Amino acid sequence: MSVMSTILDGKKVAAAWRLETQIRVSQLLEHQVVPGLAVVLVGHDPASEIYVRNKVKQATKIGIYSVVKRLPEDTSEVALLQVIRELNADPEIDGILVQLPLPDQIDEETILLAVDPNKDVDGFHPYNFGRLWSGQRGLVPATAAGIMKLLADYRISVAGKNALVIGRSLIVGRPLAALLLAANATVTIAHSQTQNVAQLAQQADIVVAALGVPKYVTSDFIKPGAVVIDVGTNRVDGKLVGDVDFDSVASKAAFITPVPGGVGPMTIAALLSQTVDLAQKRQ
Ligand SMILES: Nc1nc2c(c(=O)[nH]1)N[C@@H](CN(C=O)c1ccc(C(=O)N[C@@H](CCC(=O)O)C(=O)O)cc1)CN2
Question: What's an example of a GO molecular-function annotation for this chain (predicted)?
Fold first, then answer.
């Protein structure tokens, strides 16, 4: 018998979260504190352009002051470091993020290290990453924070569950594994060298697909009743496709995120919330 899963509606949860954040912004405005977000975009990656536009649009809508620093594709590392230094010193800016990926001539690690850890709203600075892995509270990468919030809103408990995170990126896989561990899940990280990913997935209560391969996770990976989180945003023939084969997996999983409308909107809502956390600290 095939059962249809509950769809984890990221669009709806993110909208409610943005409203809560907007209320927090109004409270800050009463104390003459305007939360400030700076987004640095180097080059013209079409997907990055969309994400940055949406971040700024949604930030502005809820009263966050936001600036975009647009730099050409051939920007040098030195020039980018100078922009970051200026933002670090700008008292109107609470949160700084550098949109990834960066062009090849720029070393990502050098850039992330240059962001003031107290303004590192993306949580990618090694200081904040270290705090995350040592189980301390702090700035957390937005996609991982968004996924945890989505699970919490649907009252999906994580403690004692087997979680498989497929993908070990700085942006999603690693920070999410740390958050799931902090929430007392038993966490496995699978990656490009992992043998028998399907076999590992069959043991998992929670499967997170964050590897960037369209429809990689199929129904034979899934234990009936599992929770499936799809972080993929692959463009195939102009269409947005996740890392999960939604139609086959939805008949087996208890909960599943759609693409679009699942994890993506939660990422931006988490970023806004964290920007306001930083402004509250300034206050
Ligand atoms: N500095 C950062 N760079 C990148 C991050 C990040 O968190 N910080 N994450 C991703 C891209 N990203 C945010 O930047 C992001 C990805 C997807 C979405 C989203 O809302 N997706 C929609 C679909 C939108 C579309 O049509 O493409 C959805 O899934 O519903 C938001 C943000 C890489 N870089």
Answer: methylenetetrahydrofolate dehydrogenase (NADP+) activity
